[in-house]
Amino acid sequence: MEKPIIGITGNFGEKGCELAQGYYLSVLKAGGTPIVIPPHRDKEALLTLLNTLDGLVFSGGGDINPLLLGEEPLPQLHSVCPERDEPELFLVREAFHRQIPMLGICRGIQVMAAALGGKVWQDISLSSTLSQGEGDNSPLLGRGRGRLLKHSQDMPRYSASHTVRIEEGTLLHDIFGSDTLAVNSFHHQAVRETGPHLRVSALSPDGIIEAVESTEHKALLGVQWHPECFILNSDETMMPIFRWLTSEAQTFSKAKHIHDTSIILDSHQDTPMFFTDDSKENATMFGTRSDRVLVNLPKMAEGRLDASVMVAYLPQGERTPEAYKAVTAKTNRLLTQIEEIVAANSDRVGLAETEEDILRLKAEGKKAILRGIENGYAIGRDLSLLEHFKRRGIVYMTLCHNGDNDICDSARGQAEHGGLSPFGREVVQEMNRLGILVDMSHAAESSFYDALELSKVPIVCSHSSARALCDHPRNLTDEQMRALAKAGGVAQTTVYSGFLRKEGQATIVDAIEHLCHAAKIMGVEHIGLGTDFDGDGGVPGLADASEIINFTRHLLKRHFSEQDIRLIMGGNFLRAMAAAQYRDSVS
């Protein structure tokens, strides 16, 4: 493979952009291709550059302007570099959204922390009383306090000046395989608080934060010392840091290639739950990087997600003629709202019903939105509504939700029918005839097996994880997985924390474990990803659509092949969908 492209932020001096040679020599020696990013404020140019980079190094330099961080400058502040501050803070945030591997060095660790919600000491001396043991709520976390060291040294830059203690269980510990490390030190500022996205991975003896890394299993690392200086003395002590960055950049480059040359599809998202009666508001929320929803066009672009199945979600309600009329109207309204947000952003997205539609839209540089219904409650007892909703473009219907309905028993129900009801059997047969995928997420095991036996085409579980790893009735047993695979179906791992772990906060690692378990039981030809974003789905590392490519990165690190990942990230679900639709075309 080609060497990954690593961008290095340039310093600013009398002649403009400049860069110490240790940075690019270290990247070259680690196997990367270094390019210099000059300091400027052209955001469009910076974003264009980010789309070509596989990794980033934020280099050392002058102080950060505290005004940009909501603070007034103190007397201890040295000279700031306005040419660098704003563009580098912008670069960190945008690279973070795009999951680009990052290494921050000295000033770079401070820029990373400040951009991602942390705080920086304007001068380490301001922390001296805390570091000497006063104040039990010190942001230095109460570890390693002692008399403040001299962090700004006059010795050669390739000489170690003090040691740092590396926290066990951290990425940095894995990189060096050691509890301590001798480092150099040429700074008077430091990270004060890491913020929500970073954690401490190394401290100096006086308690100053010397290294940070991601809390979300992303490729983010910042160090307070200058590892690039050691190479100038033919000392490779610090090369593991640059080899780590180059390796992560290589993985990210491969993930981008897979996304560029495949259909990447998320089979279940509940974003319409956040729609209001204001169509313009909905269109804006979907068209801009709104924090109100986990799935919108900017986040899909950042995560390189091609296609999303947005569902009309319907909580189970009363089963009366009046309730059925109301829920059918609600389903139609939600489907209309999906169509409206797509029409309002038609330069960037289109509606899709088939794999061919998605491929066409991708070739046009557009995202694809498919439609589904979550809960057969939408049709009440009226079988003819299936054809109506097929004409409205749905690709699947989840037969139930949390509660039995007239079609089948739910995993959270009262076993009213013992599986599919007689009406439910008609529903499955009619869905087969119309080319609508049968989705058995949320269904009781009895309903699942009835549908599996009755359906003439593969069925899917659009957002279901493994019960062997998390004993929840919504998850699939190994026996269900084997039966589903034997029938050609697909189980899409979901990322709702409560379906991944019984206790504690799940992360992307847990989601990967569930998918790996499904792969072991079913084979890679029968698994995929259905996040349940905007329906309580989302975990650290896979928290919204912008982080979909982080999932691909983790699959690569677990040694799934490129072809396996193409199947997992969309190919398997599309195969099942095509099988259902092909039956429709020949019946």
Q: Can you tell me about this structure?
A:
The protein has 587 residues and is of the alpha/beta class. The chain folds into 2 domains: 5-255, Rossmann fold; 263-377 and 459-574, Metal-dependent hydrolases (TIM Barrel). The strands form 5 sheets. A 9-stranded mixed β-sheet has the order 4-1-5-6-13-12-11-8-9, sandwiched between helices. Strands 14, 15, 16, 17, 18 and 19 form a 6-stranded parallel β-sheet that branches. The two termini are 47 Å apart.
Task: Sum up the overall morphology in one term.
Answer: elongated
User: How many β-strands, per DSSP?
Assistant: 22
Return the domain count: 2
C-alpha Rg (nearest Å):
27 Å
- Tell me the major beta sheet: 9 strands, mixed
User: What is the count of DSSP helices, taking H or I runs of 4+ residues?
Assistant: 19
Distance between the termini: 47 Å
Average pLDDT value? 94
At CATH level 3, the topology of the largest domain is: Rossmann fold
Strand order of the largest sheet: 4-1-5-6-13-12-11-8-9
Uncertain segments of ≥5 residues (pLDDT<50)? 129-144
Strand content: 15-25%
User: Based on helices, strands and strand pairing, what is the structural class?
Assistant: alpha/beta
Q: What's the level 1 CATH class of the largest domain?
A: Alpha Beta
CATH architecture of the largest domain: 3-Layer(aba) Sandwich
Report the helical percentage.
Answer: 25-40%
CATH superfamily of the largest domain: Class I glutamine amidotransferase (GATase) domain
